[in-house]
TrEMBL record:
PANTHER family: APICAL PROTEIN/SHROOM-RELATED, PROTEIN SHROOM3. CDD domains: PDZ_shroom2_3_4-like. Pfam families: PDZ (PF00595). This is PDZ domain-containing protein. It comes from Anguilla anguilla.
Amino acid sequence: MERNCSSFSTVLHRGRLIYVEARLQGGAPWGFTLKGGLEHGETLIISKVEEGGKADLLEHPLQVGDQVVNINEVELSGSRQEAISLVKGSYKTLRLTVCRHALALKDKERVSSSVFLPLSAERNQLSVISIMVAAGTWLTPW
């Protein structure tokens, strides 16, 4: 898929959190939907990203589950209605900052692996533990 040249995104790592700052150009539709908010007693998150849409074609695309932090440089209170108003008020450019956990990787960035560990040295039994790891990252299931 070809990336949109006028839109762009940057990533900031803050401990276990990743902040993605996205600037989408060209007007609606922006290619994502929101869910939750204070009105529903939930965190305001991205609930859907349209494949091939503006939010998907960024170098660092938005992902389902990303928490919306600010829109058009306005820090959000967590209200879905506030977020929708800010998004709808964006004419040609939408600036969006989302937050995700560093381990929240897209499926295509994950590699499935099986690890064989001895259960009992006396009986030579093996236990199979399947884990998901990111390429170049070591994770342990405990």
